[in-house]
Amino acid sequence: MFVEFISYIISCISALLAVAFFTLLERKGLSYFQLRKGPNKVGLMGSPQPLADAIKLFSKEYIKPIMINFLPFLICPLLSLFFALFLWLLYSSYFVVALGGMSMMLFLCLSSIGVYSVMGAGWFSNSKYALLGAVRAVAQSISYEVSMSLILMSCLLVVGSINLMNLLKYQYMCWIFFINFFMFLMWVVSSIAETHRAPFDFAEGESELVSGFNVEYGSVGFALLFMAEYGNILFMSFLSSSLFLGGGVIIMTFGFSMSLMVSFMAVLFIWVRASYPRYRYDLLMYLIWKSYLPCVLMILVFMAFFCKIMCYFS
């Protein structure tokens, strides 16, 4: 038990370090997409820039707006980061093996509960901009969780298990990406919408909402929300590579190949942000309820029928 706890702590520290340098990768990537240099003043090619930003944010004075509900206002960023780090229990290290047979159930539960921290951050700020951003974020998250859950169920139907390790073992010979290609495309779009990233960053639309649900947060509170958002991006990259790309287990050893797959999916988030302008909010809702949901349901029924036939003949 102690070894598993230490392993989980190491996973959390590694995730936080990955978040720090993923922000550097994003800033560098966006800068080269836009034909500029990005961070290059601090240290060698700007590599210590995330550490300098962290020191700046955590050492700034914490300003408390007058109208906030103080205690819940402070707790919401902590809860947001806690849920983001708790998801990394699903990462299969040498000592923690994806929580046995209930790993995907844990993901569905935590992804649903995480909406409350975003809603609370906007509600307890007592600011109209923050509340509007929180309402947008909650509606967007709840809508796309439906499609994500159904797509996840289609992958689990193919494998016949809700265990993440069984999902990886099933893909030793053939990735689910080749079986469920259209589901993969819809999963990527749903993941981007679920993490409130561009072109679906309506909760933080600077041109309309200043900064969305985190507009009243500064210094430590803003840093915690920021780390939670980027931690969720990296976890969704890990989960996407595990669900559809086999975690890279065909290519080489698990650890290095998994890192390559997660890096590829994380860079895809940056690439999409650099390539597409912000979508319209009503079109985003129509996309899930009028396009994705009927398509996912039809494919899910077909997959269930196909798996039933295969079980019957086997």
Task: Sum this structure up briefly.
By secondary structure, the protein is mainly α. It has one domain (65-313).
Q: Which range does the strand content fall in?
A: under 5%
Structural class: mainly alpha
Number of helices: 12
Radius of gyration: 20 Å
User: Major β-sheet, in short?
Assistant: none
Q: What's the overall geometry?
A: globular
Count of distinct strands: 0
- Mean pLDDT reading: 84
The portion of residues assigned to helices is over 70%
Q: How far apart are the termini? A: 40 Å
Count of the domains:
1
List segments where confidence is low: pLDDT < 50 over at least 5 consecutive residues: 250-254
SSE topology string: HHHHHHHHHHHH
Walk me through the structure.
By secondary structure, this protein is mainly alpha-helical. Helix 1 (2-33) crosses helix 2, helix 3 (70-86) runs parallel beside helix 10 and helix 5 (128-159) packs parallel to helix 12 (281-313). It has one domain. 71% of the residues lie in helices and 0% in strands. It starts with a helix and ends with a helix. It has helices at 2-33, 49-59, 70-86, 103-123, 128-159, 164-170, 176-179, 181-194, 206-209, 219-244, 254-275, 281-313. The protein contains twelve helices and no strands. The chain crosses the membrane at residues 6-25, 66-88, 94-116, 150-168, 175-193, 213-231, 243-271, 291-313. It comes from Octopus conispadiceus. GO terms for molecular function: NADH dehydrogenase (ubiquinone) activity; NADH dehydrogenase activity. Belongs to the complex I subunit 1 family. InterPro entries: NADH_UbQ_OxRdtase_su1/FPO, NADH_UbQ_OxRdtase_su1_CS.
